[in-house]
């Protein structure tokens, strides 16, 4: 094989980022944030529910949309890894354990 027939090296501009790593303490904070967010939703939803019946109520629709976006784009506060944080128990008392 002739060296001159090899393709030229591809140059990429930018930077490589390392994977994000959450330790058990950080995950405990995510668990706490999820619980607090759920409490906030429980407070807001009874106020929003009747307003959402009227499509012209833009504020209620915006709040409901943002609630859903927080859950979706945060991965529901890393729900998939919630047990890691629960085993650490840094934030708040765990019911039946502490």
Count of extended strands = 0
User: Roughly how many Å is the radius of gyration?
Assistant: 23 Å
Instruction: State the end-to-end distance.
Output: 69 Å
Structural class estimated from helices and strands: mainly alpha
What's the short story on this structure?
The protein has 98 residues and is an all-alpha fold. The chain has helices at residues 24-52, 58-73, 75-78, 82-88.
Task: Show the helix and strand layout.
Blueprint: H1 24-52, H2 58-73, H3 75-78, H4 82-88
Helix pairs in contact: 1-2, 1-4
Keywords:
4 helices; flat
Walk me through this protein's architecture.
The structure is a single chain. The chain has four helices and no strands. 57% of the residues lie in helices and 0% in strands. The chain is flat and about 70 Å long. The mean pLDDT is 76. The longest helix has 29 residues, at 24-52. It has helices at residues 24-52, 58-73, 75-78, 82-88. The protein is an all-alpha fold. The protein has a domain at 44-88.
